[in-house]
Amino acid sequence: MLPTTYHLQPITFLALAAYLIGSFPAGYLIGRCCGIDIRQHGSGNIGATNVVRVLGKKWGALVFTIDFLKGLIPVVVAMSWSHAVGIVPASAPGAVAALMALLGHSFPVWLEFRGGKGISTSAGIIVGLFPGAFPFCIGSWLLIFYTTGYVSLASLIGAAMLPVTVAFFYFLGPRYDSPSWMGADWLSLVLAFLMASVVIWRHRGNLKRLSEGTEPSFKKKN
Q1: In this predicted model, what pLDDT tens digit does every residue of 118-142 receive, in sequence order?
Q2: Is there a contact between 78 and 14 (Cβ–Cβ < 8 Å)?
Q3: Complete DSSP assignment for 32-72
Q4: Is residue 195 part of a domain?
Q5: Does residue 217 form part of some domain?
Q6: Tens digit of pLDDT for each residue in 192-210?
Q7: Which of 20, 22, 33, 220 is packed most tightly, with the most Cβ within 10 A?
Q8: How far apart, in whole angstroms, are the C-alpha atoms of residue 102 and residue 213?
Q9: Domains held by the chain: number
Q10: For the purposes of burial, counting CB atoms within 10 Å of the CB of 33, is it exposed (0-12), middle (13-18) or buried (19 or more)?
């Protein structure tokens, strides 16, 4: 069935819960546990990449895992509820949860709306909502990172691959009521473009540094 006023209250609750989960500032809190404000070190970002640079791989991996789950869990819960009540398109609650989790991570109310850049959380969302696109996004990220050493460039290319891949599945793949390994609906296509736009916008400073040749690289001493 199409979403109705009967579903408005749970969807609103789902959106708020997804935002609050997404806004959990893992990098900031782990930095505090280690005795620093991560926003005052490295790039000043609270994401996993900056935590790796400042605190090391162990803490960076923990931040990545938490941020990944912040995207995955709300989407899985939303999609399970959607299938249980028979909403069409089934991706509607998942799309709401995905976008709100990403916005929560990028603009957390607890840190004056200055959060991470969305890559780890987007990865969790992709696994939960766009599993067919995940190999293409992570594959492009790994290729660019290991050839250039730039996390930001790899992230930008990986983000751009999401709408490209979902569009390919939507226009050329089989159609389903919800995103699947080889299918996508119109709402998931819109969401893919929105997600990529948020991530690219959050990396606008990196784009400037890349063009100026001043972007830190893991192949260089930073």
Answers
A1: 999 999 999 999 888 999 999 999 9
A2: yes
A3: HHTTS-GGGSTTS--SHHHHHHHH-HHHHHHHHHHHHHHHH
A4: yes
A5: no
A6: 999 999 999 999 999 999 9
A7: 22
A8: 29
A9: 1
A10: exposed
